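cron nightly-structures :: item 1 of 1
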Amino acid sequence: MEHADVCRDELPRLDDADTEDVAAAFRSLAERRLLMPMSAENRRYAAAPPDAAVEALIRPLVQQARRAQNAADRLRRELVPVYESALERRLRQPLFEELPDVPSVRRALERFAAEAEREVLTSQPGGARKEEVLREAMDRTEAMLQRGVRMRTLYQHTAQYNPGTAAYVEIVSGLGAEVRTLGEGFMRMIAFDGEIVVIEQKGNPKAALVVREPSVVSFAVAAFELMWLQADPFPVNLGRAQAIQVSDKTKEDIIRLLIQGESDKVIARRMGMTVRTCQRHIAKIMERIGAKSRVHAGYLLREHEGNLVISDSPDRSGND
């Protein structure tokens, strides 16, 4: 070759190679940077040493890898402090925290509700809820439902007879909440995202305990799920048939507690009704089975347990 550079058209023709083969070989050498353009028009090329060709080929890959590494470092600088801060904050939080009074309970519930992302589970024994409590809960509930947080609530059967509770359930059900009722035997609690549970303190209904211990929280959520499967949907409009059904279930629960020997006061508390309403139910049961006293009623109920049918027109009083 007389020149240090060459144009593709000037390539010597080989006896056993045609033009297409020569052109393909030229392109292959150029792609591998073994032929480098000598001008902007890329009309003339010069041979390049292999080490320079390798450098030209890997340079873009190295630059791309460097950009990816820089992006990863930037994300690490941005995210790791956030994660570490959140982890540190969680580690600092106690597994059990006492809320000594109603204001502290309300502040905690408002904070947990605002931070909830997936699901809130609520069980509220005690029958009808006070209107002031329902008004306070409405804003929290509406905000969570609008964020797409799933909400499930358990009440006692007797709550169905209370107009205020029924109106509240109608509103939140329209927003997507799920509400069911059960006779008795469940605790008052609110679980947030399966991570935090707020339960009522024993002997002090105005105080609460915040539980973050994973095993305890998991147990409380599992207990709720079991009760949820046994519960009935809360009817927004309580018709006669539903009212009779609720009344019958209430009497069945009272009979079970009578057989266990519980007092009127304990039965009333566990059924979510006043003592006077409970005594009225017990009087009707005694009249129906022909009992002359509480002792006689207990004997008859034990003798005929499982075979008694106590059903009559519903007592729509629920709670006095």
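cron nightly-structures :: done
The first strand starts at residue 5 and ends at 6.
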